[in-house]
Amino acid sequence: MNAIQYELGADQILTLTIDMPGQSANTMNAVFREALSDAIAKVQSDLDNIRGVIITSAKNTFFAGGDLKELHRVTREDAKTFEDMVNGLKADMRFLETCGKPVVAAINGSALGGGLEIALACHHRVVMNQDSIQLGLPEVTLGLLPGGGGTQRLPRTIGLEAAFLFLMEGKKVNPKAALKAGIVDELADSTEDMINKARAFIDANPEYRQPWDQRGFKFPGGAPHHPAMAQKLAIAPAMLKQKTKGCYPAPERILSAAVEGAQVDFDNGSLIETRYFAELVIGQIAKNMTGTFWFQLNAIKAGGSRPAGVEKNTFRKVGVLGAGMMGAGIAYSTATRGIEVVLKDVSVEKAEKGKSYSEKLLDKKVSRGRMTEEQKSDILGRIKATASADDLEDCDLIIEAVFEDSGLKASVTQEAEPKLIENGIFASNTSTIPITQLAGASATPENFIGLHFFSPVDKMQLVEIIVGEQTSDETLARSFDYVQQIGKIPVVVNDSRGFFTSRVFGTFVNEGICMLGEGIHPASIENAGLLAGMPVGPLAISDEVSMTLMQHIRDQSKKDTEASGGSWNAHPAESVIDAMVNEHGRKGKATGAGFYDYPANGRKRLWPELEHLFVDADNARAARLEELKDRILFIQAIETVRCLEEGVLRTVADANIGSIFGIGYAPWTGGAIQFINQYGVRAFTARATELANAYGERFAPPKLLQEKAEMNIPFS
Q1: Catalytic residue chosen out of the listed positions 7, 77, 97, 117
Q2: Residue 560 has what pLDDT?
Q3: So what's the pLDDT on residue 9?
Q4: Which of 17, 419, 460, 698 meets the CB 3.0–4.6 Å disulfide criterion with 392?
C-alpha cells in the first residue's frame, strides 16, 4: 500500500490522500518522503491533464508532523546528509506550490508541525469545524524549529509579528481561531462540505500562485526594513533573551530564520531555515527535550508505570478532606472531569469557601468565552461542600489534604475511611510524611496510597503517586487511572520521607538559602537560579512555600526520624530560616514579609536588610555565576540519583518527568537524570566531587553514580 494514494478524477482534479501504512497517524518519515517524490513525479507527467490538486488524509488526523525518532538519531556527522534530505523534501513541496495549478489542503483533523507546513504550502486551506482539531507549529516546545517551510510561509501569510506567537511559543489553536488568525481560509461542516469547498476553489482559480511568488508582494504588517517593524525587531533579541535566559536556542534560531528569510526571496529563505533547523536537530538541547517531553512522557501516558493485569477503573465519586488551597484545587480538577466531589472541612463555611475557589476559576472561563454559564453550573453542582462525614458515603476514593501533621491525618483517616465503597481507596496528599507511617491509621493499608498534588492544582500537571509498603498493585493501578481520568501526569515512586519531589525540591531551596548564609548576595542567588533554567529563584520560592511551613516540615521530619532511632543531620540552611522567622518575623509571602517585601501596590523586591544581615562583601565578590548555577543544578541531580539508588524512584522517565513537572527543574536539560547523561557521567561525577570538597558531603557522588562513571554508562 502506497503512503500517498493518487486519484485523478474524470473532472481532472487530482486527490492526494496521505495514508501511512502501519501507523495511526501520518508522519514525515522516509516512507512519506519516498511516496511524496513518487507522487510529484506522477504530477509532473500528468500536469497537462490536471486542473487542480486536493491534499487530504485517510487518518483521523491530517498529519502529525516530523518523525521524532528519525530526528533524534541525527548526529553532527550526519548534518550535510540531513540538510540535503530536508531540502529535497521541501523541493517536492515547492514544486506543487509553483506548478501553476491550484492546490488545496482539505484538513480533516489536527495539523501540527509538518502537517501545518504541508497545508501552508497549499494555496487554500479548508478545515473541518471541530473544536477537537488543533493547528499549530509546536516544534519550539521540543527545542526545534519548523523545518518544512514554517518559518518562511507563516510570516508571509499572516505577518512576522503574528507568526511569532505560533513559531516561538508553539501556540496551538482550534479551527475557528485559525480562521481568525488567517492560517486557514474556510471552515467546513462535514467531509463532503470540505471537499466541495476545495473543488469550488479550484473551479474559481484555474491558475494560481502564492502571493509571495507574485511581483510586488508585501509582507502583511511590514517587512523587517519597514520602520514600524524595524523598531520592534531591534528590541526583540533582548526581550527574547530576557525570557529564555539564554537556555533555549530554538526561539532565537526561529527569530533569525524568519527575519533573515524575510529579507530574501522565498527559496533562499527556505535554505536559511534548513541551516538553522539542522543546527538545532544535531544540538544537545533538542535531544534532551525531545527525549523527555516526547518519548519518556508518552511512555508514562501510555501506562508504562501502571501494573499490568488490572482492569481499567473509572471513578464516579471522590471525597476530599480539607478545603484549603490544595483540597479546593483537587476538588476543582476532579469536578471539571465529570466526577462527583464531596468537599469536607470542619465547618460548612470553610467547605463553601473551598468551593468558591472553583467558582472563581470557572467565572474566568465564562468571561473569556471558554465556557457557558450552564457548563459552569453543572461543574459546581458536582461539588458538595459539607462538614459531615456521612456525605462521604459510597465514595470510590477519598483524598485527605489536611495540614501536614501525622496525628491530624490519622484522625481524619479513621473518620472517613469507613464511608468508602467496598475496596475503595484512601489517599493522602502529604508532601513529606511516609505513606507507610500514615497507613498505620488505616484498617485496609493495602488500599492506602499517596497522591501528592502540586500547587496550584488547576495549573500543575503532575501527580506523584507514592506506594506504601503494603499498598497493593490493584490500588496503584486504580490510582493511576484516577490521575489520568482528571487529565494529570502520573509518576510512580516508592515510599520514603519526602518521597522524590519534596526531597529534591528541598535541596534546591536549601542550597539557595545556604548560599545566603555563606554571605553571597541574594540577587546573585536568585539570578543564578533563573539563569540555570529554574522558573523561580530559590529565595522567591521559599517565600511562596512559607518558611514557617518549612520549619514545621523539618521539625516533624526530625521528630519522626529520631523516634525511629535515626539521627538528624542539620542542614546549613536551617539556621538562616530560624533567624528569618524567629528573630525577624519574616515568614514568607502569605504574611507579606520573607526574603522579599511585598508592597500592596507594586512588585515584590528583595528585603534590603538581607544585605546587612547576611552578605559578606568578600564572599559576594568572589562568587562566580557558573559555580552558583552548578550548585543549584547539581544538588538536585545528585539527590535524584540517591532516590534511584534507594529504590524510591522506579524509572529514569519518572525521574526526568517528575523533576520538570513537579519541581520545575530546568526543562532545557530534559530532567535531573538527563542533565547527568548529557553532561557525561564521568565529567558530572568529577565535578560533583569538586563541589563536595568545596561545600560539603551533600554533593558527594552516590555509589550508583560512581559505578556508572567507572563504566562510563549513562542512566537509562
Answers
A1: 117
A2: 82
A3: 95
A4: 419
